Amino acid sequence: MIQSPLLKSTNGYINGKWCAADSAHTMPVINPATGETIAIVPVMGRDETTRAVDAAARTLVTPASIEQRGEWLGRLADLITEHRDELGRIITHEHGKPFAEAQGEADYAASFFRYYAGCVDYLRPKQLAERPRNHAWTVYYRPAGVAALITPWNFPLAMLAKKFSAALAADCCCVIKPSSKTPLSMVALFSLIEQIGLPPGKANLVLGPAGEISDVLCQHSAVRVISFTGSTSVGKKLIADTAPHLKRLALELGGNAPFIVFDDADVDRAVDQLMSNKFRGAGQTCVCANRVYVQQGIADAFAEKLAARANTIKIGNGMEEGVTMGPLIDRKAFDKVKRHVDDAISKGAKRVAGCAPIEPKPNEGCFFPPTVLRGVTAHMECVHDETFGPLAPIIEFQSEEEAIEAANRTEYGLAAYVFTASDERAARVIPRLSFGHVGHNTGSGPTAEAPFGGMKHSGFGREGGLEGLHDFIETQTVPRP
Ligand code: NAP
Q: Which atom from ligand 1 is nearest to the alpha carbon of 178?
């Protein structure tokens, strides 16, 4: 069992109090590197979630000043930074990513609270410069209501930080539901939230699989916003489940990122950027390259350099010194990556880095070797489906037009990357890529200061930047003679 000063309780948190499930049902939290149970947490359901929403709705009636919100956000940013090592240790234990990456996730989470602490003034009422109908018009940004925040396991702390920071800035009251695979980072965050003096009911934590929790969040009339990060299939289900209740949705869904490298690109830089973009989190990130398109003239040099670098990755328990890639989250994730690799090889692709994975034994970690494939073509499964694992499939192309067409041939539209020395080419290609985030000569992902989100089946709404506040505010106009 994991021991931590941030995990004195491993319960949920409703109306300012730690609480177990009414039914006393519990579930284990598993360390994916070892298969060990590291904590036991409650399985909550309909009643606890209803109480959490009711508490949030009661608190919503008393607004917090803009100054107060800025202070809460700043204090939480400082506390996360102060506890980055302990939060990192907890993230590594429940997710598996290397400790340095997990510390980086804590820093990234803190950056959202710090950013919104610095821009709460944006939410002050605005007086229109004009006087239409001879009235003074004031525009107010009211909290949208109780906000349900549902997050995945791949960034157990950061995905929630993006939502909660904006929701708190907007003065919403929140009910938070983390993935049941990684609830501990959230429990640890709540032990810090407890220290910033929020009113009871402002932030509530319900734990357990979605089922009944999601039913209440979709149906309860006080919940006005559901901000969800996760798979496209669950996002679509949320659209259907909330339609009768007309709730506002912000959906950060799956990706199938193309990484396009043109002949004139700096190959070393492109390889370097792909290494950190692709293999961070063992390839279990929504923004990581899923399809690597390389122009024919540089394909040999690119593949050779990428394979050499991929073979240097050290796989293991993320808490061990020198480990640069952890396990996959579970057996299901392992089977999917293996299926994609086997499918591609059976259709003619060649493995140029990595080796056949060792079958995981029950109660052991599911480690998958970083794999680079060449000779990948459009009819292979890994091109159409998000692999969510450490597989870099190289697809060669000849013309700019062909690269654009292939990159857009997906229902997803989250992140894309373009490497070229020509600004003219970039200016032609980037506007034609239907993706919310396009890295130009960089594999860098989102940041707190910039709005990030998807197009097409990757969802709608934006997180980060001033746009990130819009999902959590209602705009009210007040004309007055
Ligand atoms: P997931 O299976 O969709 O789960 C995400 C969250 O939704 C979990 O908390 C899950 O709870 C909950 N959930 C499951 N079924 C639900 C339902 N019917 N109603 C409401 N909530 C439900 O996704 P995941 O496997 O955790 O995450 C991987 C996916 O997230 C990938 O597709 C990735 O691309 C995407 N992602 C997108 C972004 C982005 O910014 N666009 C960022 C990160 C990840 P339980 O599992 O506990 O039941």
A: 9
Q: Which residues are catalytic?
A: 252, 286
pLDDT tens for residues 70-116? Answer: 999 999 999 999 999 999 999 999 999 999 999 999 999 999 999 99
Same domain, 207 and 322: no
- Ligand 1 center to 66 CA (angstroms): 32
Residue 100 forms part of a structural domain: yes
Domain span at residue 286 reads 257-447
If asked whether residues 281 and 402 sit together in one domain, one would say yes
| Alpha carbons 162 and 447: distance in angstroms, whole number | 10
Average pLDDT over residues 359-381: 95
Averaged pLDDT for residues 299-313 = 98
- Same domain flag for 67 and 112: yes
Residue with tokens 């089946």, as numbered in its chain: 457
Query: What atom of ligand 1 comes closest to residue 208's alpha carbon?
Result: 47
- Specify the pTM: 0.98
pLDDT greater than 90 at residue 437: yes
SS3 176: strand
Residues 306-320, buried b or exposed e (16+ Cβ, 10 A)? bbebbeebebbbbbe
Q: Report how many domains make up the chain.
A: 2
Residue 6 belongs to a domain:
no
